[in-house]
Write a structure and sequence with these properties.
Length: 336
Amino acid sequence: MPRPTGRVLALLELLQSGGTRTVAELADRLGVDGRTVRRYVEHLIDLDVPVESIRGRYGGYRLGPGYRLPPLMLAEDEALAVLLGLAAGRRAGLPGAGSTAGETASAKIRRVLPEHVAGRLAALLDSLAFTDPSRPAAAPAPVPDAEVLLTLADAVRHRRPVSLRYTDRSGHRSERTLHAYGIVAHEGRWYVTGAGPGTGPDPGTGEERTFRLDRITDARPLPGSFEAPTDHDPARQLLAGFAAAEYRHEVVLRVRATVAQVRDHLPATVAGVTELAPTADEGEQWLRVELRAERLDWLPPVLAALDRPFVIECPSELRALVTAFANRLASHALRT
């Protein structure tokens, strides 16, 4: 159970976050009753912290203006949030995050952290990769557990096997063993990539695996160690896994375009692209584009926006959808 002094400091942190806090809210956050909250407020006032009492229906407590904050103190999860925010800001090119100010802020935080905390956070930042291009999530994504994140980062750095308790998208729970190669941030979600332990004469190689961190409820290091492939790219493994995921339709196209033109409309998370040898009669670059999709109705507008010659190898249903889409566009264009 936290000591009273710890709760008084927690009360100060809540008030420092701004606004007026009701007694009921503070009591709930601190796990005490209203009378105890008032006693903690008196302790802060005795320490010359200007806590103001606001009366009325929406009253409560707030910090008075002009209060000078004490030296910065961060808990482990708070330091993690700040350092990851700076790393993500540098990756996204946010103003200030990639400048000298961002670098010095990160260095200052690391310097004042306890040694064991600084080591765990350094392991995470060293193992972290971002997919390219970096794009914001369409909606707020579930947040992974900080302890799980740090445990996996330590496993990546020291090449230790790790046991995971995982819940897949269908709700099935299982326990997995993973040789973690890296941690990847992709469009607001976090993933760990690696391989399962192999069997037979070479136990160090197994099937490549990727897990969403917010679906991991527990991660525990296991005895032993493993050797990771020297040429492994965690971000590339993640994107390749997305493109090869099992869906209802398998689509194969030939497109006369550059890789950059295709990628503007079909990113690596959606489609795989292979360059084909130029034909003697055409002499232009064709690409084979392969993807899997649960529905096909979104592809005709994408192909129209791409505006490059293409051939649909399969499925036949897509040909019908593209033809119907083209007929609708033509009928709309002819209206007066």
